[in-house]
Amino acid sequence: MGAVYNPTHEDVSVKALGNWFNIKAGQIKVMDDKISHYLTTDKGYLGLASLPDICIEDPTSAEATVAKEEARKMGIAKRVDHLNKVVNNLTVSLRRDLEQANIKTDPLLYASEGELAAFKALKVYKAAHEDDASKRADEIKQIQDEIKKAE
């Protein structure tokens, strides 16, 4: 049995090998190996990540916690990469295509609902990443201040 983890903030509805699966945000679903492999490879752009067996057998162990965190980072990275491709397609590729056709208009006027949703989701992920980076920077500054006080 394989475990599929959805580390994103979005619920995912996906069809795999003739079956529909709904995986809620943050949910881990145990399923057949073929299906879990398909979801994490072919549908990985949705943010789905594979978890090792230790996460099913002993989810509270330190090894399982580390593996889950790695899977979270990998799933979110795949999702952000896909969203960046969607945004890039609209802002760069479509602009170039319009210029080659000598159409003088803003490519954002051609944005679909899906592309708008991609922009919104990318904004959420970028804000979360910046929050993590600023927390790390604040923690480092605090440690530096403590080191200076100890001297």
Characterize the structure shown.
The chain has 151 residues and is of the alpha+beta class. It has one domain (1-151). It contains 4 helices and 5 strands. The strands form 2 sheets. Strands 4-1-5 form a 3-stranded antiparallel sheet. The protein has a two-stranded antiparallel ribbon with strand order 2-3. α3 crosses α4. The chain is flat. The mean pLDDT is 86.
Which descriptors would you attach to this protein?
two-stranded antiparallel sheet; three-stranded antiparallel beta sheet; 4 helices; 151 residues; single chain; alpha+beta
Mean pLDDT: 86
Q: Total domains, how many?
A: 1
Largest sheet: 3 strands, antiparallel
The number of strands is 5
Give a brief rundown of this model:
The protein has 151 residues and is α+β, with helices and mostly antiparallel strands.
Secondary structure: elements and pairs:
Layout: E1 2-5, E2 12-16, E3 19-23, E4 28-31, H1 33-41, E5 49-51, H2 54-57, H3 62-100, H4 113-150
Antiparallel strand pairs: 1-4, 1-5, 2-3
Helix pairs in contact: 3-4
